[in-house]
Predict the structure.
Amino acid sequence: MMFIYVACGGAIGAALRYVVSITLLFPYGTLAVNIIGSFVMGAAFVVLTAKGADRMIVFAMTGVLGGFTTFSAFSLDTFKLIEDGRVIFAGGYILASVILSLAAVFGGVVFVRGVWG
């Protein structure tokens, strides 16, 4: 049954990622979903683990957020930038993606613990 939760959540997350990717210019769509997804992941971690909501953890975190955020797309974007000779931009993109996504996870945890906890 958990497989169904992951699959349904993943379909929702992938569709949302597609909407963001067609809305923002390359490579900002991937950067945006990774930052937004990381923030929501941090917030969901606090709320769902506190409630012991195992099914919602699988649906929301593994499914929706797993389908929404994507390291493979980030990796491909970086490769394309390097291949296009935009090496310095690619380095900035790597730093921004990693640092901002980590900051977003921390931000999500701190925000929800401050508001909810």
In short: The helical segments are 2-23, 28-51, 54-68, 71-83, 87-116.
